[in-house]
Write a structure and sequence with these properties.
The complex is a heterodimer of chains A (149) and B (113).
Chain A: E1 12-17, H1 23-32, E2 44-45, E3 54-58, E4 61-62, H2 63-75, E5 81-85, H3 87-91, E6 101-103, E7 113-115, H4 122-145
Parallel strand pairs in A: 1-2, 1-3, 3-5, 5-7
Antiparallel strand pairs in A: 4-6
Helix pairs in contact in A: 1-4
Chain B: E1 4-6, E2 11-13, H1 14-33, H2 58-61, H3 70-75, H4 77-86, H5 91-112
Antiparallel strand pairs in B: 1-2
The chains are: A alpha/beta (149), B mainly alpha (113).
Chain lengths: 149, 113
Amino acid sequence: MKLNKYLERSLWVFHLNTGSCNGCDIEIVAGLTPRYDLERFGIKLVGSPKHADVLLVTGPVTHKMADRVKRVYEQTPEPKVVIVVGTCGTSGGVFYNSYNLLGPVDKIIPVDIYVPGCPARPEAIINGVLQAWIKLEKLREGMKAAPVK
Amino acid sequence: MLGLLETGSGFWSAVVWVILVLVIGSLVYYIRNKGEKSYKKNTEQDKPFISGNPELSKEGSHISASHIYWGFTEALKGYYNPLVKMHTGDINDYSGWMVIITVVILIIVGVRR
C-alpha cells in the first residue's frame, strides 16, 4: 500500500560539504535525530553518490572542491535532484566574493532546491527534501515515459 | 558420455552441470536486469567513488604485500639498508661475495685444523 503517489520508494540522500562551516551539517543531522526522525519515511543518508537519489550540498564551493563537486554530481545516477542547504551554498553568504571561493553551488552544478538560512532550520531542510522528492518523482515519471538511452 | 562419472570421492554428471549452468545463468540474468537502467557507460559513473577525488592509476594506488611489513622494516632499517645495497642485481657482485665467503670459511676451517 502506498501512502501517496510520492512515497513509491525510499529516498536516499548523499550529503556533500563543499566548504561549509559545519553549521548546516549539524542541522541536517538534527533532521535525523529522534525529534524529527526523517528515517521513519525511508529518507536516509548514504555513503556514496552512486546509491543516492538526492545530492544535499552545504557550503560555498572552494577552489579545491570545485572538480570534486562536479565529479560527485556526475557519479550520481539519473534521475537526481540537487538541494543546497544554507545561505553560503545559495549565494556565498558572508563569504561572497571571497578570494578562496569559486562561488555558490549553482555556479558549478545545476541546483533544483534552495534552502536558505544560517544555519537552515531542520524544518526548512525537511521541507526542502520533500520538495525534492516531489520533483524527483516527476522526473521518474518522465523517465518512464522516455527512458534514458 | 552423459553417464555418471564416479570418482571415489564424489560424482560428476554432464547433465547436472548443464542444468546448474542454466539455473545460475538465469539467476544472474534476472539480477542484472533488475539493475539501474539509467546507468551511463564511459562517464564518471563507470569510475569508483573515492570521496570525489580522481581515480589514480592502478600503479599509483596499488598496495603491495610489503606495505604490511612497513613498521617492521622501518624499525630495522639499520639492518635492512646495507642488505638492500648489497643486492645490486649484478651476477659479478654475487659471484664475488661467494668467493670471499668461501675463502673466509676455508681459512676458518684451516685454522681450526
